[in-house]
Design a protein that fits this description.
Length: 793
Amino acid sequence: MKKNKILLLTTCMSSLFFHNAHAASTAQKQPVTKQTDQRGKAPAGKATANARADSVTATKAESIIVMGAGAARETQSLSHLALQEVAPGTSPLKTLSKLPGVMFTSSDPLGSYEWSQQIIIRGFDQSRLGFTMDGIPLGNLAYGNDNGLSIGRALQTENNGPATLAQGAGAVGVAASNDLGGALEFTSIDPSKKFGVDVAGTVGSYGTWRTFARINSGTLPGGGRLYVSYDYQDANKWKGDGIQQQQQANAKFIQPLGDKVKLTLFGDYSQRAENDYQDLSLQMIQTKGYNVDNVTNNYGLAKQIATAYQTGKPFPAGIANQDQSYYNSAGLRQDVLGYGKFDFHLTDHLKGFATVYGHTNTGEGIYATPYTATPASLGGSPLSVRTTEYDIHREGFIGSLSYEIAHHTIEGGFWFENNDFEQARRFYPLSADKYTGSSVHWFRNNPFETQWQSAFNTKTYQFHIQDTWQITPALKLNYGFKSLVVDNRGRQLEGNYMGTPVANTYASGSITSANGFLPQLGANYRINRHNEIFADFARNMAAFDNSTTGATSPFAMTSAAYAASKKTLHPEMSYSEEIGYRFHNRRIQASITGYYIEFEDRLASISPVSSGTNVQGYASILTNVGGVTARGIDTAFNYRFADNWSLYVSYAYNQSVYDDNLTTGGVTYATRGKSVVGMPRNLANVQISYDDGTIWGNIGMQYQGRRTYTYTNDQWIKPNDIFNLNVGYRFHSHNWALRGLDAQINVTNLFDKRYVATVGSTGFAVSDPTGSLQTLQAGAPRMVFFTLRKHFF
């Protein structure tokens, strides 16, 4: 959270979204075509015509989006190669946005800038979607995440294996306590059986450069396999002054333990620092354009802005107010993630796995605030640095057993996680004459004020059981349920921190989200070898947040507000139904799915009285404010119309509306029947691709319909259609310098459109009649990236 004035809006943000739940069932996933190597390339060297044709077919087959044939819910998968055809460092969330019903936005070209990352599926934002990597929970992907980390910090993009999205009911076993609206399951590639070294380098617009190296051990004497990889990425912001920087390392080891057991170990280290882009308003865009940004390179101007605000004097020329341009703001994150997993196949009928994992995170969100001056004794600047500081320590266990008997596959499992999370708001001094430290400087010492400091513990218990019953060769039925209990405890710390007093007014206490029966039922009927229909139903619950700034956290209230509302709070619930049809043959995959969703007990932070009568300073209260109803269709069509050519088209229509009027501040607003914020009704993707095994390329268009950022729908953002181009060349030669070499060029926003990317970066408002709410992020202009890769041995 960055600005005091928008804290309430941020608190309301995800609670006035709605969310439904589903994840791809492991038992129902279709296998992705086997990779030719870790980059999906055709083998190097001269080959016969038949062998060359086989390698081309394998490469192209891996690129196909797999549309979940045989599954009892809507699901699609993107292959490893499909995730590598974009510019290195691109968030896989951005690549997945070509799937139907998925809206992803970011103000940077790679989709990795976390403050502006926004993914919405059927109207549900990321705080109500489930995310896992190799089955490990990644949490809610909120900017100030209290229970996980983004996929870009958990796994290097070069090590991404197939990724699967389920827009429908969701698997009962997915490790997520907030998956009202679906799940995205990411995987890491395995070490190769042969020794090899992969290196890559990328250069691009605005000083972008990225280096990557991976060493595969091949099969070791004991049968194990290992890879270790490292990358460093640096880029300037495309406007203003600042950097986007990350270094990351991955390691994965696989060791067979006899014929029936396999051990997998995985480790990840990530350090990310990114300067922020300024949040814009419609009014700013209309009067000043899209390039308004922070004034990080002009400390003198930043001090003038702060002084003008604090003294009531006129602002400098071209500056409208103290929030138009901050001096500096940034997000800093450092993560360590690891897991150990045993897969065992005890008999022909009994198999399972057991996983233990751990994750630590240290983070800061910083900005140079004009609202609080540095004390004269500590430097006297009219500015100070305000931080929101994060510290996560979590560990967990996931286990599952599956038993096949007759025509049934019975599977059950358990997930437990213990998460300790600390959060604090502090202020650090600045010198009157200059800004000390880099633009992404960590502030860890000498705060002059600690506004609040909180400690939280969350224990999650989830049990599930399900049966897949092959009733006839054509008819398959899935049915099961999960039980979910999440115990939250919050404690506000008082006393002193580094000599500064801490006087908290936020709540302490405990609250439990629990539901013992969250069922789901699905069926798939194969009409013939090419045609099938499916249907499913699911009921899901989302646990309360557990932080001082969480949108659905009871501990973001004062002690008095918490005491007044605790007994009446209910966790958010969703009920989702869908029915669909799929067609698939050697050249065509097609699907159409219709869905209906009811979301109940949505949470919002409201004021009990109007601002004009709030003389006693009543605190905002987290409360259940009604529901949302959604209905829509998802369609996708993938056609390989010639040996080297394919066409992919997807379209989604989503009508998500609020069921109730909203009363806040003693005023009732007509929100019933209004569109849900942030989600366009129409989404479309078109991509045409060519790949002959040597030359490959694709050009795609993504269309997003208009979006609103106010609950009364009095402001709308225009639609946008953005084109992207990816082309590459794979060298096939006996020459050592060219063998294993490939090159690619990626162009984002090909036609250099100016548009609004993220809507709601600082939250949403009931209304914004003047268009002055700064909650928009401008989309990046056209940018070009060039990459060379080389595989040795």
